[in-house]
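Troubleshooting log. The previous structure file for this entry was overwritten by mistake, so regenerating from the original sequence record. Sequence copied from the archived sheet and checked twice against the printout by T.R.
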Amino acid sequence: MDFLIGWLAIIPSYATPLLLASLGLIICERAGVLNLGAEGLMAVGAMTGAIIVLSGGNPWAALGGGAVAAAALALLFGLATVVKRADHTLSGLAIVAIGLGVTGVLGRPYVQKTFPGIETLGDLFGIDRGTVFGRIVAVQDPVTIALPLIVFALWWWLQKTRSGLRLTAVGENPAAADVAGIDIQLTQLAAVLASGVLCGLAGAYLSVATSHVWVEGMVAARGWVAIALVIFARWNPARALLGALLFGAADALVPRLQAIGADFPVYLTMTAPYILTLGVLVLSSLRGKTSGEPGFLGRVYLRQDKH
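Regenerated output below.
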């Protein structure tokens, strides 16, 4: 019973970075821009957040700083793909290389230095940890509690608001959206920046709220998992929440098994989230065009295409 309670308690913290990054990618790809740079964006967010806290900053400011830093890198990606019409796949891979390279150099002086993270609900409200409910809820933080509201707000915006429908129209048929008077470049650039903010927030959460330390490579392919999660969710924020909990549960299993001293193949168990990722990608490729995939995803739009 203790194992189950402990496992359930840490699943949200493992799911949160995946969900934040996947929500950012959903916004970006709903606008037709294929973003494979999540790994680099998350790394920049994680390093920036850690540096801000280690420099005496507030953990909440560190989350914001990580989001801003990743947005700056995402702007570079947006200028390349949207303005200069570079290939989306190659540009995304370049962002990964830049993000990992920059963090490897600038973050080196801060490696393995621990720092305090954001306060949990137990710290803020003095929740009694003597009950099952208290043990699970007390270790959560305001970010994990707010995520369902963020998911609902994003779903509502995409489905029920004029600006959200305009963004979706750009990703489905930019020529028709262009004729309707929608600024294609501005919409796509805004979507790319939003993806940078959320991916950076995901990375900063990973270092500031979960690990309380900066280690080179700590994102550990979570950016690629987030990309697979978007496909799994069919570009739907609500399905992304369920998928993030599933992937987070698999990721959280290893530390819990280690905590109870269970005899199990550690390295094999650590591959569980990535096996799930590969499974999602293989199934998607076998099915051809995935249901929910934006019609113009990853393609370069030229204005004459509308004629």
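The first helix runs from residue 2 to 30. Archived copy saved in two places this time.
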